[in-house]
Structures are given as structure tokens and as C-alpha cells.
Design a protein that fits this description.
Distance between the termini: 32 Å
Number of helices: 10
Shape: globular
Radius of gyration: 19 Å
Helix content: 40-55%
Strand order of the largest sheet: 1-2
Low-confidence stretches: none
């Protein structure tokens, strides 16, 4: 999409400045935009996720609402403590960890981020191996799956090269995480509804990170496959 379909904007910064012409901060994504009030409701991904499946839930057909989903929805009451605890360290060491590596300005800062990043990936790999479940907390997708997917789907395609997260790769070194990732991406079932694949766009991902990390317009040629097929 070359232009914002509502206002015709071509830059994300224009939304921030429409909401507040005096805004001087960073222009970050994602953004939840209120079309009626023409302002930003929220720009924190973890909070937007919960807004979407709570505040907007009554707008969905009854069978798709949180209370009626098998397993209790994305944030089941019996798993909330576990999900919140995992969110804390996954966000710090993995979701944000790749950025700490990519934008480190010293060897010390980089080393201080890359080691915890891969220790955390090892921890997640062990978690999936020990549970033996399809998704992080069982046979149903939860918030934990959604939050981790956004980082791991970019990992081999972008972070390994552009953010110097090259100690290991998901596809070669983490068999349980790799299977989990491919299941979310490729499968179209009642749990995924094809949403993970349809909202993942590898070319813009690589172009965006190449621009941010390398401050140029040279995009790495590989990998040969952005994500491997489910049967490999």
C-alpha cells in the first residue's frame, strides 16, 4: 500500500503529526487510530493486542468471542500468571533483545544483549520440547504465541544478518521453535485462520530493517527461503 487509504498519507509520521502537530518524539509502529476523533489511541503493541480482543470483542460473532473460544481465548484465566511471566522476559530478552543487538553502539552493549537473546531462545525451545504441545501453552493459540511470532518470523530473514543475531538460526538450531513457527505461518485452521501468513510481508520487513540498520538501501539477497515449507 503506497498511501494511507483514509488520508492519503505516504509517511507514518504524518499520522503522529495529524494527532498532534507539535509532536517531537519517535514515530513508532504499530498504531491504533481512532477515525472519528482522528487521533492515536495507543502505540504500544502489547496493549493494542489486549484492546483488540477485549474492547472490540463484542463486535465479533458470538462463536469468535473470547469467552466462547476453546481453551479460554488468547488470555485464559487459568494461564494468565504464566502468560504474564513469560511476556516479561520474552519482551526484554527476545522482542526487544534483537533491537538491542541491532542498534548497539559498543561491543559491550552488543554482547550484553546477544547472549541473553540466545539464552532465552534456548529456554523457549526447551519449554516447547518439555510441554510437547503444538502451541506455547497447549493446543490453542494464546497471546504468548502472537507476541513471539512477530519476532521469530523476522529472525532468519532479517535479524540474523541485519541485526547481527547470527549465533544460531531458528530453522537450523531450534527444531521445536521452527516447527511451531511454521505451523502458525502455514496452517489455516480454527486457531490461526490464516492470519499469521496473510499479515507477514517479507520484502517490506527486509527493506525496512536494511534501511534502519544499515542506513542505506542495500537489502541482503538471502535467505533463499524466507520461511521453509511445513513439511521440511
Amino acid at each position: 500500500m503506497e498511501r494511507d487509504p483514509i488520508y492519503g498519507h505516504t509517511k507514518h509520521s504524518q499520522l503522529y503529526l495529524k494527532a498532534d502537530p507539535e509532536y517531537k518524539g519517535r514515530y513508532t509502529v504499530p498504531v491504533l487510530w481512532d477515525k472519528k476523533k482522528e487521533t492515536i489511541v495507543n502505540n504500544e503493541s502489547s496493549e493494542i493486542i489486549r484492546m483488540l480482543y477485549s474492547g472490540f470483542d463484542p463486535l465479533l460473532p458470538a462463536d469468535q468471542q473470547e469467552a466462547n473460544k476453546p481453551g479460554g481465548g488468547y488470555y485464559p484465566k487459568n494461564l494468565r500468571g504464566d502468560i504474564d511471566a513469560m511476556n516479561d522476559w520474552v519482551y526484554d530478552k527476545v522482542n526487544n533483545g534483537v533491537y538491542k543487538c541491532g542498534f548497539a553502539t559498543s561491543q559491550e552493549a552488543y554482547d550484553g544483549a546477544v547472549v541473553p537473546l540466545f539464552e532465552s531462545l534456548d529456554r523457549l525451545e526447551k519449554h516447547l520440547e518439555e510441554r510437547g504441545s503444538k502451541y506455547i501453552w497447549g493446543e490453542h493459540v494464546t497471546e504468548s504465541d502472537i507476541r513471539l511470532f512477530t519476532t521469530l518470523i523476522r529472525f532468519d530473514a532479517a535479524y540474523v544478518t541485519l541485526f547481527k543475531c547470527n549465533y544460531k538460526q531458528i530453522r537450523y538450531d531450534y527444531p521445536y521453535l521452527h516447527k511451531w513457527l511454521r505451523s502458525l505461518y502455514w496452517e489455516e485452521n480454527d486457531e490461526t485462520r490464516g492470519a499469521f501468513k496473510s499479515t507477514t510481508h517479507f520484502t517490506p520487513i527486509k527493506v525496512g530493517y536494511a534501511t534502519a540498520a544499515l542506513k542505506g538501501n542495500i537489502v541482503p539477497y538471502g535467505p533463499k527461503y524466507d520461511i521453509l515449507p511445513l513439511d521440511m
